[in-house]
Amino acid sequence: MGDQYLWASFLKGDPQAYENMYSQYYQNLYSYGVRKTNHPDLVRDCIQDLFVHLWTNRANLRQTDNVKYYLLASLRNFLVKASMQNDKRQGVSLDADMPFTMDFDPEMILLLKEKEGQRSKMIVEALEQLTDRQKEAIYLRYFEELSYDEVAELMNISVKGAYKLVYRALEVLKLALNMPKNDILLLLMACRLDFFTSLKHFLNQH
Question: Where in the chain is the domain with CATH 1.10.1740.10?
C-alpha cells in the first residue's frame, strides 16, 4: 500500500490503514525521537499521543506528499510541547542546541555487529566526529531519506543551510574514512539498512 493511498484511507477513517501507518513508521519515529531527547519513555508517550491526536482529528487533516516527514515533524512538535510541560519537574528539554546523538543502545550495537559488524562500526565511529547539527542533517538526509527542503524545515534552517551542513559532514567523513564521496554514500545506505533491520529486532524484544 503506497504512502499517499495509506494516508488517504486513514483520512477516510479506515482503521486498518491507521494500524498499518502506526506499524510502518513507529521505528522511524522512535529512532528520531530518542536522538532528539534521551528520554525513551517520553518518546513512546509522545508517539502514542500523536497517533491518538491524528485519529481524533483526522477529519481536519489534509493530504500529504510525504507521510514520514509529516509524522516526524508532528512528533517533534509533540516532544517540544511535552518537554516544556515537564522541564521543571523532570529536567527534560528539547531545543535547537540540544545534542543530537548517533549513539546506539548497547543491545543495538551487538545486533549491528552480529549483522554487518565492520561496515556498521566504521560509519558509526566516523559519525561521532561530526557536530551535533551535522549528525542530525546526515541522519535525516540519509537514514530517514528526507529531501533537503524537508531537512531544512525539520531543523528550522534554510535549504542552503541544510546543503551546507550535509556537504561539510561528508567532507569530515571523507577524511575520517579515507574514502571518496560516492563510497561514503553507499556505506551510509548500507548502514541504514543494517540499522533499521536491527532496530526492528530490538523494538520487538522490548
Answer: 3-90
pLDDT in tens, 19-72: 999 999 998 999 899 888 878 899 999 999 999 999 999 999 988 989 999 999
Q: Where do the H-state alpha helices sit in 91-180?
A: 106-127, 132-138, 148-155, 159-177
CA distances from residue 200 to 8, 11, 111, 195 in whole angstroms, order as listed: 26, 27, 11, 9
Phi, psi of 131 (to 5 degrees): -70, 165
CATH of 106-204, picked from 3.20.20.100, 3.30.470.20, 3.40.190.10, 1.10.10.10, is 1.10.10.10
Which CATH number is 3-90 given?
Answer: 1.10.1740.10
Of 139, 171, 173, the closest CA to residue 155 belongs to 139
Q: CATH 1.10.10.10 in the chain, residues?
A: 106-204
* Model confidence band, residue 99 (pLDDT cutoffs 50, 70, 90): low
Report DSSP state, residue 60: G
Cβ atoms of residues 184 and 174 within 8 Å: yes
Contact 123, 191 (CB under 8 A): yes
CA end-to-end distance (rounded Å), the chain = 27
For helices 67-90 and 148-155, the axis angle rounded to 10 degrees is: 20
